[in-house]
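Suppose you are handed a protein chain with no further information: no name, no annotation, nothing but its sequence. What can you learn? This example shows the usual starting point.
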Amino acid sequence: MNQEKSAITAARMINCVDDHHQRLFIDGLLAGLSEARRLQWMQLVCEMAYPDLVWKDLEAWLEKKFGRDPRKTPREVASLCRRRFRMNPKTLPFLVRIAQKVKLRVRARMRRHPELKKI
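A reasonable first move is to predict its three-dimensional structure. Written in structure tokens, the prediction is:
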């Protein structure tokens, strides 16, 4: 209960300061996090910023793109995905990471099941 109240108070305080100090706060916060933890936070922020977007649909769309043309890079497909789902350009690094994981999954599936060349 006390931590919840402190978190809400901190969020209100951060909202009251100017953009420069908000950026300093976020830089300091992210500096102490590992890369994996940063990715988890980015995913949480994206899910909260885009609640209507179904993330499983996004991954299925990525799989379909990589299944049709496996030569495409994750960055190309992530850029297409960002435009297709009308997402903020700042989410591109997160989408690139998701696209990398999806491409690896599609490549592994193609290696295991060569008869499934196209999805």
